[in-house]
Amino acid sequence: MTLTPEQIAAMRRKVAWRILPLVIVLYLIAYLDRANVGFAKLRMARDLHFSEEVFGLGIGIFFIGYLILEVPGALLVEHWSARKWFARILITWGFISAATAFVKTPLQFNVARFFLGVAEAGFFPGIIVYFTHWFPVQLRGRAMAGLIVAVPFSLALGAPISALLLDVHWLGLLGWQWLFILEGLPAVVMGVVTLFFLTDRPRNAKWLGGEERAFLEEELAGEARAKDSIRKFSIWQALQSKDVWLLALSIFAANTGGYALGFWLPTTVKSLSGGSDRSSLIYSAIYYLCGLVGVLYAGFASDRSGRHKWHCAGAMLAAGILLGISSLTGQPFWLVMMWLCFTGFAANQWPPPFWALPTLTLTASAAAVSIGLINIFANLAGYLGNHLLGWMRHNGATDSQCLVFLGSCYGLGALILSFVRTKQPAQMTL
């Protein structure tokens, strides 16, 4: 099936505007619902008398629950229906997130966070697999940037909104309780919307013309055949691949620092600045806005150069160095905040090119399993980093010591990633 360059460009725009806005909104809600506990902590810990270690465990245990359906979730998107799977995920996690408002004890907090992870499991790897059904490899980094832009955007938006919600007292509930309720229920609404508006594959897209559907299906099928001609990976071979395990270990190291930094940033900023809860959340929002710029830059830069691995490793290394600089004692807060903002710019650049790497050389099912496996390690890091940082703070570690630990995690991730072998997109064209 042949389309003119102008028709292909128009088709690309049509796909992007139909797929990306909805998926970005879904992931924005997802990330806010998993991370808003970091905002709520500023008041929740005081009201419930939770220690730093209790919060570190509660924040981290989300990721243990998340592990359960990682690989099955990615395969369900590949072989069943992204639309139905995502709708199920959204509706269940929305109700569980809102229910967190009513926890009273550490055990209840841990149970709520664990089942929130179970409910959301498979969503992120499922989206990565879903993008392979719509975007050719040369556009996939850009699509991932569109998705991952939701992470800093949700936190930049959520921080000031959460700051306002912390001060409300409606119907006998405290502000942090309303924070969970009002930020959780949109997921339920969007779960219903997903059932009606998400399209599983190009062949199901009535909003594309017949020639457009045929062209896109053939383009993606041809890309899959090209990858097979280089090296055909079975699922079992993918799980035995050294590169898959290097990717898993790299993201494990980087996310040990990254997740902990994201969740504990408001607490760290409050400690460093000596300011109020509200000012700490506003400062945190500035950090996340810098991250937003970093994500937008990363997708276009990595796709343009085709060097996804080195763009990713360089961003990890830069984040580690900048965190190390921010940990130097004797600096005024404004200077520390500047280094943290540069960190936000760098630390949010590596995920878009990173998640394009598994799909560059693996066949569809193998890539789905590998992405699920890699994301298992990504989420184990979320548990380890948050639990360990909570333990460190509970046992008297300074803010500088915590920042050095987080920076070293990014540096280790960059080192491991440098050993991954990848094929460039140009080597896989027909």
Structure description:
- The structure is a single chain.
- The protein is mainly α and 430 residues long.
- It has one domain: Up-down Bundle (Growth Hormone, Chain: A), CATH 1.20.1250.20.
- It is built from 19 helices and no strands.
- α6 (123-132) runs antiparallel to α18 (364-394).
Strand percentage: under 5%
Distance between the termini: 15 Å
Rg (C-alpha, Å)? 21 Å
Order of helix and strand elements from N to C terminus? HHHHHHHHHHHHHHHHHHH
Which whole number gives the mean pLDDT? Answer: 85
CATH fold field value: Growth Hormone, Chain: A
User: How many DSSP-defined strands?
Assistant: 0
DSSP helix fraction = over 70%
Poorly predicted regions: 425-430
What is this structure, in a nutshell?
Helices cover 80% and strands 0% of the residues.
List keywords for this structure.
80% helix; disordered C terminus; single chain; mainly alpha; Growth Hormone, Chain: A; 430 residues
Write the layout of secondary structure elements.
Layout: H1 5-48, H2 52-67, H3 70-79, H4 82-99, H5 106-120, H6 123-132, H7 137-148, H8 150-165, H9 175-197, H10 210-230, H11 235-240, H12 242-273, H13 277-305, H14 308-326, H15 333-347, H16 351-356, H17 358-361, H18 364-394, H19 399-417
Helix pairs in contact: 1-2, 1-4, 1-7, 1-8, 1-9, 1-12, 2-5, 2-18, 3-6, 3-18, 4-5, 4-6, 4-9, 6-18, 7-13, 8-13, 12-13, 12-18, 12-19, 13-15, 14-15, 14-19
